[in-house]
Structure formats: C-alpha cells, structure tokens
Amino acid sequence: MDTSVWSLALRRDPPAGEPAVRFLADALARGDSVLTTGFILQELLQGFHGPKAQDSIIERFAALPLVVADREDHIQAAQLHNRCRRRGVQTTTIDVLIAQLCIRHGLTLLTTDRDFNRIVGVQPFDLWCP
C-alpha cells in the first residue's frame, strides 16, 4: 500500500529507537512516498557544521522529491497564519507554509515539533507527532 508521508527532519541526531525515526524507516522500507521541501533541507544544513555532515545530508535528501510552494500556497499560508494569530496561536512563516503544503497535497506531516499541534487545532490536517 502506497501512502503519502511528509518528512519533517529532526534538528538533532535522534536515536534510532525514537518513534519518529522508526516510523520514517518503516515508511521507507514499505516503499511509501516520502517527500520534503527545500525549507527543511535548508534548516538541516544550517544546523550542522562541517562539510562531511552537510555532504551526507545533501546526499540523503537527494533521493526525496521536493514539494514546492506556489503563489496560492503562500497566500493560503498567510491566511492560516492570520487565523492562528486571531486565536492566540503563535506560528512561524515556515511552519504555516509547511502545514499549507500538507493541506494542499493531502500529505501527512511527520514531525517531532509540537508547534504543529497548535496549528492543527486551528486548521485540521494529517499530523503524525509522537
């Protein structure tokens, strides 16, 4: 069975037994579609130092298709951000854009970032969060 999964990479090097890592490894082993964005790749590259670490990230992410935001995604993400703000939910520009891409493409967001729990309370979308 092919299921769409969104890969939101962790900003640290988690242990292999962590639920998000196991879930991602299982999804890849099943042949599920695992996607990412340039935003996530950029955040990872900004968080690691040294050419070896960066080369490894670039190499591993080369296998994952990128989902790219278009003009309408940016408009919808801004509207989502405004709805969140009106409800007292603080978000970041990148987080609401990632949420919008999941909404538009019907993707499940795989993350350990609890900030998305607040966004999903304002605008429901599929979220896998341990």
Report the β-strand fraction as a percent range. Answer: 5-15%
Distance between the termini: 22 Å
Q: What is the structural class?
A: alpha/beta
DSSP, total strands: 4
Q: Output mean pLDDT.
A: 86
Instruction: Specify the biggest β-sheet.
Output: 4 strands, parallel
> Which outline best applies?
globular
Side-by-side strand order of the widest sheet: 2-1-3-4
Low-confidence stretches: none
Could you name the key traits of this structure?
6 helices; 130 residues; 4 strands
Task: Write the topology of this structure.
Elements: E1 4-7, H1 19-30, E2 33-35, H2 38-47, H3 51-61, H4 71-86, H5 93-105, E3 108-110, H6 115-122, E4 127-128
Parallel strand pairs: 1-2, 1-3, 3-4
Structure explained in plain terms:
The protein is an alpha/beta fold. The protein has six helices and four strands; from the N terminus they run E-H-E-H-H-H-H-E-H-E. It has a four-stranded parallel β-sheet with strand order 2-1-3-4, with helices on both faces. Strand 3, helix 6 and strand 4 form a beta-alpha-beta unit. Helix 4 packs across helix 5. The relative contact order is 0.18. The model has no long low-confidence stretch (mean pLDDT 86).
What's this, in brief?
With 130 residues, the protein is an alpha/beta fold. The chain has helices at residues 19-30, 38-47, 51-61, 71-86, 93-105, 115-122; strands at residues 4-7, 33-35, 108-110, 127-128. A four-stranded parallel sheet has the order 2-1-3-4, sandwiched between helices.
